[in-house]
Amino acid sequence: MSELKEKIEAAAQYIRQRSKITPEFGIILGTGLNALAGQIEAAAEIPYADIPNFPAPTIEHHTGVLHTGTINGRPIVAMEGRFHYYEGHSLEDITLPVRVMRALGAGILIISASGGGMNPNYDIGDILIIDDHINLMGVNPLIGPNDESLGPRYPDMCEPYDRELIALAEKVSMEENIRAHRGVYVAVAGPNLETRAEYRMLRMMGADVVGMSTVPEVLVAVHAGFRVLGLVAITDRCLPDALKPVRIEEIIRI
User: Fold this and answer.
1) What separation in angstroms does the CA of 13 have from each of 45, 75, 101?
2) Distance (Å, rounded) from C-alpha 84 to C-alpha 212?
3) Neighbours of 35 (CB within 10 A)
4) How many CA atoms lie within 13 A of 36 on its CB side?
5) What are the b/e assignments for 11-31, b being 16+ CB within 10 Å?
6) Which of 186, 189, 203 is nearest to 238 (CA)?
7) Are 25 and 76 contacting, i.e. CB atoms less than 8 angstroms apart?
8) CA distances from 82 to 56, 64, 66, 184, 241 (A)
């Protein structure tokens, strides 16, 4: 057994001791999106600090609690707070919870995040349903020895985001009158926001929204065999010719 798999099994075993839920869905709650945790009919609330091999979040608004329970009767496991590369975590630590959720039985992963809208047709408060992504973080969590029991050496990325789940999200957004767009997310390392020239470059590359997370977890999720849905709350407009300073408090409020 690889060292990584030992870490996964130790964490999963501890969670199973605290909760008998076998989740269908894994959920990652991004910046400012922790309110969903209040809608979970909880079986267990487990601080990350108690789970073997889980890192600790260093950002105040990422709580650091793993929830198991149900939403509308469907069994889920949800991360209230995620990890970012710019915090200094290794990519293995950032993505370990994804592998643990898979080991617990989840087959669908819903990843949420906040991001800056570069597409001029997007407005603050809109939702991006991620259709595809660009990885400009300069790193990849799949580099290194591969444990074939966790996933293939060369995972295919022609469809990292599940087409049926995208269509379902579009249908729900129309029924609920939520402004949602299907587009491309680009991930950068952060923690600084981008310059005007960088926004122009990213837009020319075909990206609609920019953020500092999500892609590492998606790469590992695809490697592990998850069906993935990615949703981004657009919290600021990143238009080079109308750029204004952004406050984190405003991002969280939106």
Assistant:
1) 15, 18, 11
2) 7
3) 9
4) 25
5) bbebbeeebebebebbbbbbb
6) 203
7) yes
8) 9, 7, 10, 21, 32
Secondary structure element (H or E) that encloses residue 129, with its range = strand 127-135
Distance between CA atoms of residues 181 and 128, nearest Å? 5
Of the candidates 223, 47, 21, which has an alpha carbon nearest to the alpha carbon of residue 105?
A: 21
Q: Which amino acid is at 10?
A: A
Neighbours of 140 (CB within 10 A): 13
> Token pair of 156, please?
């295919």
Q: pLDDT digit of tens for each residue in the chain (254 aa)?
A: 799 999 999 999 999 999 999 999 999 998 778 788 889 998 899 999 999 999 987 876 658 999 999 999 999 999 998 999 999 999 999 999 999 999 999 999 999 999 999 999 999 999 999 999 999 999 999 999 999 999 999 999 999 999 999 999 999 999 999 999 999 999 999 999 999 999 999 999 999 999 999 999 999 999 999 999 999 999 999 999 999 888 888 888 88
* C-alpha distances out from residue 156 to 117, 187, 218, Å: 28, 19, 12
Which residue do the tokens 């970012």 mark? 84
- Where is 234: in which H helix or E strand? strand 227-237
Let me know: does 183 contact 131? Beta carbons within 8 Å. Answer: yes
Peptide bond into 216 cis (omega under 30): no
